[in-house]
Design brief:
Largest sheet: 6 strands, antiparallel
Number of helices: 3
CATH topology: Metal Binding Protein, Guanine Nucleotide Exchange Factor, Chain A
Strand order of the largest sheet: 3-4-8-7-6-5
Number of strands: 9
CATH class: Mainly Beta
Distance between the termini: 66 Å
Bound molecules: zinc ion
CATH architecture: Beta Complex
Number of domains: 1
Oligomer: single chain
Radius of gyration: 20 Å
């Protein structure tokens, strides 16, 4: 009788654990379909004005494609699995499509399964800036280029070690240069 009870209890425990795993994996999303309040410290590394790249919307429109403008200057999001770099495994560096600021290195890129290029760290912390984004009714940490304020994507706390962070970035915000 005791054995039956132990078996039943173990079964309950296992099903409970597996449903927890399912919930964790459903957090792998870049489009804000889940409600988390991130504990990431909001870091602001504002450059002095002389190092900033500032242009009017009209000037940006002249040098960017329509899609690049919508994502980088109007905080758009490209559809998953649609960009040039989500599955790029080449060694090299990722620069800002607007101002050529070095943003990410291939060494920190990982396969998040989300359809967007994902990195666990920026190339240099000072080269990107995090700002609070509550545009869709929840708090997310937006990642922007620290030189020209281009919208790049968002950062979440479900990334791999060593940082535990996932910088979920639009391919279209980036320009890859192979090493
Ligand atoms: Zn930039």
């Amino acid at each position: 009788m005791i054995k039956i009870f132990i078996c039943f209890f173990s079964f309950l425990l296992l099903s409970c654990l597996s449903s927890m795993e399912e919930k964790e994996s459903s957090l792998i999303s870049c489009n804000g379909n889940y409600n988390i309040v991130s504990k990431v410290d909001i870091k602001k590394f504002n450059l002095d004005d002389s190092s900033k790249v500032k242009k009017t919307d009209e000037e940006w429109r002249k040098i960017l494609s329509k899609e690049q403008f919508i994502v980088t200057r109007q905080s758009g999001t490209e559809p998953p699995f649609s960009g040039d770099y989500w599955n790029n495994k080449d060694k090299g560096n990722y620069y800002c499509v607007c101002c050529d600021n070095l943003l990410f290195l291939s060494e920190t890129k990982f396969n998040s399964g989300t359809g967007w290029p994902s990195f666990y760290a920026p190339a240099f912390e000072d080269n990107v800036k995090q700002v609070i984004d509550n545009s869709i009714g929840m708090i997310r940490n937006e990642v922007v280029c620290n030189k020209c304020d281009a919208h790049l994507g968002h950062v979440f706390e479900d990334g791999p070690l060593p940082s535990g962070l996932r910088y979920c970035i639009n391919s279209i915000s980036l320009k890859f240069k192979k090493e």
